[in-house]
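Design a sequence for this backbone.
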């Protein structure tokens, strides 16, 4: 092992980047892809991602291939699909494998590549480190997520600051979003009320309260977005917006487009790009909107805005975060019986940030129409 070539002296021909999930984590890893492509311009780079999320990466100019990890229903089907993916990885002849997930599943995929160099981080868990030939010290867990990925790129000789995340938005998805949204007066406020964990799902009534204020004070149009299982949640938000009596509700009747549960991931990306402002809890769509440079207001309950907040690539209109102040804030628990944070973090605390961001967008001329 002592005579092994240093990582920063490697010249790999085939690189496998293993980051199968989650939605937001994949977005936060994209700057590292940019660093790797700059360091190894002629290398073949493939990314392993769960099949539903692989659609985010297809067509990306810095990738040569996306290897989907099927995730069917049923334990037997999942095991069979995973074994099939391992078999494919064994046949791809990668000479460098990078595990940015650091869990048992990704460790097994890293091992299956049979790459001469298999690299993971010091934060890896579930014995995934046993699959590595090299383990990079990435510092403490409590730092922006991107900063825990960058040291691996640095170890490979990548220099310079991480570039902005580049998200490929398909032309047909842009055409679709323009057709659905072009009738809406600007500014367009996209509202994403969903999140994978119940502890990150701010109440629908709170999102609706902010949407009503945006309509009342800025004559904003509202676009509600959400994943395949969030159609009902989107409808609750829409109904709560429309339930408000008065002139603002009458304006909202003509300016709400509820797309929750109706978009593919490429279409969601196009909607995020079209919107003037994006309002969301800590979720994949929040990171997607921020990566597309849509001014974003993030609401944080059980997670930490430092580690999990949207990356600040907007010098003139930085993203904004509002966090709960309860004692157990940023606990990263996925289940909670109390959910005190949901009541403590009121719409009144979030509104000044959203109000200012909408004012900034309005003063800049509302020119974010996706082209």
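Sequence:
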């Amino acid at each position: 092992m002592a005579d092994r070539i240093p990582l920063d002296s490697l010249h790999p021909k085939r690189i496998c980047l293993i980051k199968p999930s989650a939605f937001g984590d994949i977005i936060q890893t994209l700057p590292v892809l940019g660093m790797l492509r700059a360091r190894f311009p002629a290398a073949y780079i493939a990314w392993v991602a769960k099949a539903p999320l692989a659609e985010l990466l297809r067509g990306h100019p810095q990738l040569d291939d996306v290897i989907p990890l099927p995730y069917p229903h049923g334990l037997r089907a999942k095991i069979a699909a995973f074994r099939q993916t391992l078999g494919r990885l064994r046949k791809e002849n990668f000479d460098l494998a990078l595990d940015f997930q650091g869990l048992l599943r990704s460790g097994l995929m890293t091992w299956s590549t049979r790459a001469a160099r298999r690299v993971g981080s010091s934060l890896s868990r579930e014995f995934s480190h046993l699959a590595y030939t090299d383990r990079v010290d990435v510092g403490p867990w409590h730092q922006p997520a991107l900063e825990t990925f960058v040291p691996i790129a640095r170890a490979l000789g990548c220099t310079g600051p991480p570039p902005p995340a580049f998200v490929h938005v398909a032309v047909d998805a842009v055409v679709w979003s323009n057709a659905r949204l072009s009738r809406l007066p600007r500014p367009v406020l996209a509202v994403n009320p969903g999140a994978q964990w119940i502890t990150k799902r701010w109440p629908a009534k709170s999102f609706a309260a902010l949407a009503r204020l945006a309509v009342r004070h800025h004559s904003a149009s509202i676009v509600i977005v959400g994943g395949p299982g969030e159609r009902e949640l989107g409808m609750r938000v829409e109904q709560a917006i429309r339930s408000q009596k008065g002139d603002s509700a009458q304006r909202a009747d003509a300016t709400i487009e509820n797309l929750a549960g109706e978009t593919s991931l490429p279409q969601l990306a196009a909607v995020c790009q079209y919107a003037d402002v994006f309002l969301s809890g800590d979720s994949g769509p929040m990171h997607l909107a921020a990566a597309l440079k849509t001014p974003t207001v993030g609401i944080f309950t059980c997670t930490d805005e430092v580690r999990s907040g949207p990356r600040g690539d907007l010098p003139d209109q930085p993203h904004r975060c509002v966090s709960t102040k309860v004692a157990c804030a940023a606990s990263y628990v996925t289940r909670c019986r109390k959910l005190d944070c949901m009541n403590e973090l009121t719409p009144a605390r979030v509104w000044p940030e959203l109000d200012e961001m909408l004012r900034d967008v309005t003063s800049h001329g509302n020119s974010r129409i996706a082209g």
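The two ends are 53 Å apart (CA to CA).
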